[in-house]
Protein 1
Amino acid sequence: MKVLMVCLGNICRSPLAEGILKSKKPDWYVDSAGTSNYHIGERPDLRSIEIARKYNIDISNQRARQFSREDFAKFDLILAMDSSNYQNILKLARSEADKEKVKLILNYAQPGLNMAVPDPYYDGGFEKVYQLLNEALDNLV
Ligand code: 4NP
């Protein structure tokens, strides 16, 4: 199974989602990306690194990259953190098959509610983000 986590900056939410899923399924190919180009090449936000470390997950070696159209061919499942990420990913889809690969990650925790993983970049809340992602990813696996 090849899974891509996608948020806006690829420094807060999606790196954490990548780390959590890798810890649950070491044999799956898991990566993350951002819809924006704001932080390309950067390490995850220190607050994400710290919350992951609290749960014995090391995400410090990740580097941010931007989502691209080629990712539709490389991954089976593309998990968006919020509806803005979701819409921006769909804009790059070339086919219905591409679109069907894209899901809102929290629909694995609360099916059909289209809930967002709140963006913690300005206001914090990394523990809550961890708990939401962990619950959704337990259900996914
Ligand atoms: P992320 O958080 O999408 O979870 O990585 C953000 C990181 C950076 C910005 C916004 C959200 N930014 O505006 O730079």
Note: Helices lie at 13-24, 46-54, 71-74, 83-90, 96-100, 126-140.
Protein 2
Amino acid sequence: MNPSFQFPADFVWGVAAAGAQIEGAAFCQGKGPSIWDTFCRVPGKVVGGDTLDVACDHFHLFEQDANLMKEMGWTNYRLSIAWPRLYPSGRGALNQAGLDFYSRLIDAFLERGITPWVTLFHWDLPQPLEDENGWLNRDTVDAFASYADTVTRHLGDRVKDWFTVNEIPCFIGLGYEQGIHAPGRTEPKKMVNQGYHHALLAHGRAVEIVRANVSDSRVGLVHNPVTPIPVIETEEHIEAARQNYERVNGPLMQPIFQGSYPAWFMDSPDAPEVTDGDLSTIAQPCDFLGLNLYAGYFVRAESPLEAMPFPSQFPLGDLPWLKVTPQTLYWQIRMAREVYSAQSFYVTENGSAFADEVTPAGEVLDLERREFLRNYLLSLHRASAEGFDVRGFFAWSVMDNFEWAEGYAKRFGLIHVDFETQKRTPKLSAHWFSAVCRENRVV
Ligand code: NOJ
């Protein structure tokens, strides 16, 4: 008998993190301040007044961390480069020490048989660019393009797999509209939409740059489209989910996949200004779509455009938005394919925070996280078994880290971090995930 829930032979299993969330060394060796270094110093913005100053001290401990990942049998690592480590002012003079750090880090992982998958922008905008209006200023796109050019020229001999920008809805929506993430602004919709447009442009420019600078490269966006799940799997409810998917995700998915904005969006008084040529830059064909997926919501035929309310006892992770909805993985992939003809996918993040405790014996028996990931993977397996081109899965996160506005209080790691001592302890879920990677199936 064949073992159950086997994935295709070339399926990529990996773990993920982002520079700002784990590196620490926020002001070491010439690194400039990012908008998050500024934001976490504004009283009340980050839980516990936590800062990124030390984090997991991965900046100093990366060799030890690479050893541990190797021991765990993890062979792919999604990481991000901190733009202000290379360009403290965002543009202009290069901080060579910053570039050298990433070069050593990439080598350390490669030497241990771990393939680095590099995200160019994971939210840590250099503060001096924010001082010039950040992502709402079109010049930021040019600054990003020169930074991306430097990174890909210097690391492209060793790094072949690239992600452009991470979760546009968060770094624009939460940062410039809701104000709950850095830079903490609450701007009118029209300005925010201009920010979205610039972020899309930055993605498109980065695709061109990776292709020009890196031979044999693969490149794509990391996006977090919303996931409507049909409440009953019959055609009328599935059709409702399609309508919901298109309406909510259209302003970002349509430019990426069809090179145009939805008509209703452009007809609104809040439409962004679009310059000739922008949309063809944005719609550059990519090698895949990277998907960060945590939670979906249910819809039904009676009211396709409305998310159904969650009952108060619906299962949750350690944050109110972490609704346990494993079907998110299947339905997101199916909807992206059916509505926008997206062809190939990586799940670039999936996981959950839970209030982990270390037992007196020094273990972390995080059965909730193991169960969470296992159920989500079963749903991913369904997508793969039905023929969707799902190429890989990266667990978020390799280790507990700085969870943005939640500080260090919310733990997403497979590896537990004691932030006092920097001791790493692989949780039960880490050992389980190692078996999944080894056997290439849901165990
Ligand atoms: C998405 C982000 O990319 C990552 O930085 C964050 O920590 C996780 N979601 C969990 O919220």
Note: The pocket of 1-deoxynojirimycin is lined by residues 18, 21, 166-167, 292, 349, 396, 403, 412 (CB under 6 Å).
